[in-house]
Amino acid sequence: MSQKLSDLLLALERDAVLETVKGRLGTNEDPLRVLEDCRSGMTLVGERFQRGDFFLAELILSAEIFKDAAAIIEPRLSRARADHSRGRVLVGTLMGDIHDLGKNILITLLRAHGFEVKDLGVDVPPSVAVEKVKESKAHFVGFSALITTAFPNMKQAVTLLQEAGLRGRVKVMIGGGVTTPEVRDYVGADFQTTDAMEGVAYCLKTTGGK
Fold first, then answer.
1. Mean per-residue pLDDT for 130-135?
2. Would you tell me which of 115, 158, 160, 191 could form a disulfide with 110, CB atoms 3.0–4.6 Å apart?
3. CA separation for the pair 204, 129 (Å, rounded)
4. What CATH number is given to the structural domain containing 150?
């Protein structure tokens, strides 16, 4: 384990990443710290992708490695979670976009911090997302985007939430590399970020957690 976990993920060394994760958990290290190192690796991957040093194939591979690592870490997170749910969160990628990397990272981090999270999936029609908010009585709903074609559907989802009388009880979050504060205002969301951990911090602050 001479090489940092984040660097191994950046190098797309799947077997080494999983071996390192298992090894660190085997020493009873805090699973949240192990997860954070994986997230840091994904941040580095994202930076290389934005610079053009990585292509879509590398991005997809890194996402699969992160997903495999998270599957090992998540069962150990129960020790770090609160006894009661901090809140209910729905997270999905709306119609017009099928990317799920950022969404999956956010879901894993939220669960690690004690939130009850339902994954809506990708290419979700706005009406379906709103219906799920109604059914679940969610406190937060997060929409992820990696391409701009999802923006109008984000806006439509917020409009439908308003028309259904649900907007006042749910915080709307948007995230993804193409989102900006201006997009947040266009959509009518409460919060925007390009960093999944910032999304977790927002949820914690809103619910009175740390």
1. 96
2. 115
3. 22
4. 3.40.50.280
Instruction: Write phi, then psi, for 50 (nearest 5 degrees).
Output: -65, -30
Query: Can you tell me which residue has the tokens 């998540």?
Result: 74
Whole-prediction pTM value?
0.77
74 and 94 part of one domain:
no
Q: Do residues 58 and 26 make contact, with C-beta atoms less than 8 angstroms apart?
A: no
Pair 101, 59: CB distance under 8 Å: yes
CA 181 – CA 185 distance, rounded (Å):
6
193-204 pLDDT, tens digit each: 998 889 999 999
End-to-end CA distance of the chain: 31
**Based on the structure, what is the number of domains in the chain?**
2
Whether the CB-CB separation of 106 and 142 falls below 8 Å is answered with: yes
Sheet holding 88-94, edge to edge: 116-124, 88-94, 140-144, 171-175, 191-193
Extract the tokens encoding 205.
Answer: 């602050």
Q: Are 16 and 4 in contact (CB under 8 A)?
A: no
Please report how the helices 56-73 and 31-51 are oriented relative to each other, as an axis angle in degrees rounded to 10: 180
Which of 58, 79, 100 is a domain's end point?
79
